[in-house]
Amino acid sequence: MSATTKLNITTNRYRFHDPVNFVFQTPKGLNEQVVRAIAKQHDEPDWMLEQRLAALRLFAAKKMPRWGADLSQINFDEITYYARPTEQAQDSWSKVPKKIKQTFERLGVPQAERKFLAGVGAQYESEIIYHRLKEKWTKLGVVFCDMSDAPRRYPELVKKYFGTVVPAGDNKFAALNTAVWSGGSFIYVPKGVQVALPLQAYFRINAPSIGQFERTLIIADEGSSVHYLEGCTAPVYSRDSLHAAVVELIALRGSRVRYTTIQNWSQNVYNLVTKRAVAYRDAVVEWVDGNLGSKVTMKYPCVILKEPGAVADILSIAFAGRGQHQDAGAKVIHQAPRTASKIISKSIAKDGGRTSYRGLVSVSAKAKHARVKVRCDALLLDGRSRSDTYPTMKIRNSQTAVEHEASVSKINEQQLFYLQSRGLSPAEAERMIIAGFLEIFTKELPLEYAVELNRLIALEMDGSVG
């Protein structure tokens, strides 16, 4: 029996696509009329439309990044920036249109909600089509809603925090997202509330040449905690799609926020995401970031340690196969004394794929007694693949403890020989070694997500994800 059969792996769970049928969509290309149409679909207040139009001007003025992965093939004129699959989001799974419901059932979203989640949101193309928070958390004042609804339902919170962590002018793709964003999650956790179960969102691109530009804003009030899980997939098409999300986290005094992502985009998706958090006094922000699939990924979760005692913990993996470039990493900005950060990055490249670790740690002159630890490890599975490391350290005071280590290695032939001598096939032995290499990451995931990651790694090893 083959390793694939034993693991019960099937590519159909990821690579299928549904017939394209929208209740509304904008024409291809980007202009002021498209932006106004998106704002009108959401019935947004004027102040949000003004932010969108200002961001559109910034996007037009900013040049494409000339560092990192090759983005020269992106054609902004061939992308559809907004597509609405249903008239409105539902809070009952039975009311979701049958075709869309079948998509998410095949991806396991309803099962996950029933098993271990406090709430679920499901986005299909540009809009959330299903959203539900369990009553227990609603009674405690927890807000978990479609970001498209938030400016109308919670205007004071959104106006106070939207664009403060990732301003529109931060980079070209942050400007693009601010102009055309749709969907995503808005979360507010009141003071002292500990959300013991994760909240999950799942994002699906179904049609070719579609852009998905969700916006996520999470606010953890003083002494609260929340864990947010995010999954992403798309089918294979010959035409490229664009995913350019923005995530903003605000961790107020003594709070704790964990943001876990497993992205499994197909190899025709440009995955260009800006994710950033601000941590106030004694707050903890954790990014757990898994990057598989996609044609190109450029993503560097960032934490700004703004007040004393704040902590950042960033753990990421990247897997690049044939024709893929995973340019990922992390950033931490120490702005206050007695702050601490840890960055651990793991990457795997095979069949000529390329992984890059791109990191920044900045410690200001005021951030005395800061502690920094960075570790990035790369595993190359053949002689055609490539791994690069671009670490930057800016340390502006002498009272800082800094550790940095990096390694690039190949699979150990002695380990392979030993495992095969114990009855494993060469493919099974290789997968087991990779599982050990990634163990530090998988043990941080809920059980269902860890099992899912192992399946995805096995698919990547077979060269069949998409």
Relevant terms:
14 helices, alpha/beta, disordered N terminus, SUF_FeS_clus_asmbl_SufBD_sf, single chain, Fe-S_cluster_assembly_SufBD, ten-stranded mixed β-sheet, Fe-S cluster assembly protein SufB, SUF_FeS_clus_asmbl_SufBD_core
Structural account:
The protein has 466 residues and is of the alpha/beta class. The protein has 2 domains: 10-299, no CATH class; 413-466, no CATH class. The chain is built from 14 helices and 24 strands. It has helices at residues 3-7, 12-15, 32-41, 46-61, 98-107, 109-116, 135-139, 150-153, 155-161, 172-180, 413-421, 426-437, 439-442, 447-462; strands at 24-25, 83-84, 119-124, 127-133, 143-146, 185-189, 199-204, 211-212, 215-220, 225-233, 241-243, 246-251, 256-265, 269-279, 284-293, 296-299, 302-305, 311-320, 325-334, 340-349, 354-363, 370-380, 386-395, 400-410. β3 and β4 form a beta hairpin. It is globular and about 65 Å long.
Condensed summary:
The chain has 466 residues and is an alpha/beta fold.
Class from secondary-structure proportions: alpha/beta
Q: How many distinct folded domains? A: 2
Q: With helices defined by DSSP (H or I, 4 residues minimum), what is the helix count?
A: 14
> What's the alpha carbon Rg, rounded to whole Å?
21 Å
Instruction: Tell me the distance between the termini.
Output: 24 Å
Q: What does the largest sheet look like? A: 12 strands, mixed
Cα shape: globular
Instruction: Kindly state the percentage of residues in helix.
Output: 25-40%
The averaged pLDDT comes out at 84
The overall strand count is: 24
- How much beta, percentage-wise? 35-45%
Organism: Candidatus Buchananbacteria bacterium RIFCSPHIGHO2_02_FULL_56_16
Family: Belongs to the iron-sulfur cluster assembly SufBD family.
GO biological process, one term: iron-sulfur cluster assembly
Domain SUF system FeS cluster assembly SufBD N-terminal: 109-200
